[in-house]
Design goal:
With about 350 residues, this protein is an all-beta fold. The chain contains no helices and 31 strands. It has a 5-stranded antiparallel β-sheet, with no helix packed on it. Strands 2-9-8-7-6 form a 5-stranded antiparallel β-sheet, with no helix packed on it. Strands 10, 11, 12, 13 and 14 form a 5-stranded antiparallel β-sheet that branches. The two termini are about 15 Å apart. About 50% of the residues are buried.
């Protein structure tokens, strides 16, 4: 299943837009056990086996790992992330699924300290502590390597302009293999577990520039996008960037998706709706577009642009992420998840245990 982050990173109170800029480095330490009672009065469930995907939510002031069972349309907190006095609440925590199936949680800390990290241990139903040596980096998993993306400029280009680094690590032991540099501030990042090439979008001179970074050889290649395109979401299919933007002139009765499939990049222009998220999977692309008080999920052929399926999620004015599962697409909002069957248009909404932080 594809990995993607389709929203910009920024420093603000944790929320569903979850601008998390985080790190990871492996080194198992003592396991942090969970119990049904849960800390701080937070009720913890036990549906570890039925959970097909995980998210983070803030419940009664505590960040919890939420297991989502799309078959039963149910979400519940499974483990509470340990709280510390030096947690940086101005930046959202982050959860990422590696290509080997492991899930890693990262929590930013104050005063330039390395982020805390935890490995979700399904077998023992715990969070295992991990050592760390970097901060404010978001994990972008590749096929065999991992890119850790700095969401704030921490370097300079050859001409002295701001640049952001990408650390390339081996997730087997988390050794750093190389360091890459991307001009500007990285606001979008996406990947696909079938490739070690990741897709990045960086803000430079008030414009979003797209590039692909080969984690294996360290080569960063800029990719041209149409002039004037306001990039709102980014996906990455086997190292091929897919960018989506809204056409403000669109006034159609429903969201219309136009596709331009090129050798270096696929661009989607959405009229009649605001782009909230995009995912590329198989031979198709799925876009979540907000229109009025509803959200439309539109699936198009990645090459021809032909519309394949469409579903309307009623009374959902904004979404923060979309994820494919065997039971249907999951559309995330601030405190709910909606399961969508694109083939039939059927939708089923269910509650998160708290406010979404990351998914």
């Amino acid at each position: 299943m594809p990995h993607a982050t389709t929203r910009k990173h920024d420093r603000r109170p944790a929320g569903p837009a979850r601008a998390a800029l985080l790190l990871a480095a492996l080194g198992a330490t003592a396991a942090l056990t969970t119990a049904c009672g849960g800390p701080g009065g937070v009720e913890l469930g036990d549906d570890w086996e039925g959970s097909k995907t995980f998210a983070l939510a803030k419940v009664d002031g505590l960040v919890t790992v939420v297991g989502i069972n799309p078959d039963k349309a149910h979400a519940e907190s499974l483990a509470a992330v340990p709280q510390h006095s030096d947690d940086d609440d101005a930046v959202s925590p982050h959860i990422a699924r590696l290509a080997d199936g492991r899930w890693v949680v990262t929590v930013p800390r104050k005063d330039e300290r390395p982020d805390r990290r935890y490995l979700v241990n399904r077998k023992d139903r715990t969070l295992d502590g991990m050592t760390g040596d970097e901060r404010l980096r978001r994990i972008i998993p590749g096929k065999t390597l991992v890119g850790e993306v700095a969401g704030l400029p921490d370097a300079r280009t050859a001409n002295g302009g701001p640049a952001s680094t990408v650390l390339v690590r081996d997730p087997a032991g988390w050794q750093t293999k190389r360091e890459l540099k991307v001009a500007g501030t990285i606001g979008f990042a996406a990947s696909d577990p079938s490739s070690d090439t990741i897709c990045l979008g960086s803000d430079e001179d008030s414009h979003t520039k797209i590039s692909v970074a080969n984690l294996t050889d360290g080569k960063v290649t800029p990719v041209a996008v149409p002039d004037g395109m306001d990039v709102k979401a980014l996906a990455c299919k086997a190292g091929h960037p897919v960018v989506a933007g809204s056409d403000p002139a669109g006034k159609s009765g429903r969201a219309k998706v136009s596709v331009n499939s090129g050798a270096d990049v696929t661009t989607l222009s959405v009229s009649g709706g605001r782009v909230d998220a995009v995912q590329a999977t198989g031979s198709s692309i799925v876009v979540a577009a907000a229109r009025g008080k509803d959200t439309e999920l539109v699936e198009v052929d990645a090459t021809s642009g032909k519309e394949l399926h469409r579903a309307v999620v009623k009374d959902l004015a904004a979404s923060s992420d979309i994820t494919p599962t065997s039971a249907g697409w999951l559309v995330y909002a601030e405190d709910t998840v909606t399961r969508v069957n694109l083939a039939t248009g059927e939708t089923k909404r269910f509650d998160l245990p708290g406010t979404l932080q990351d998914s």
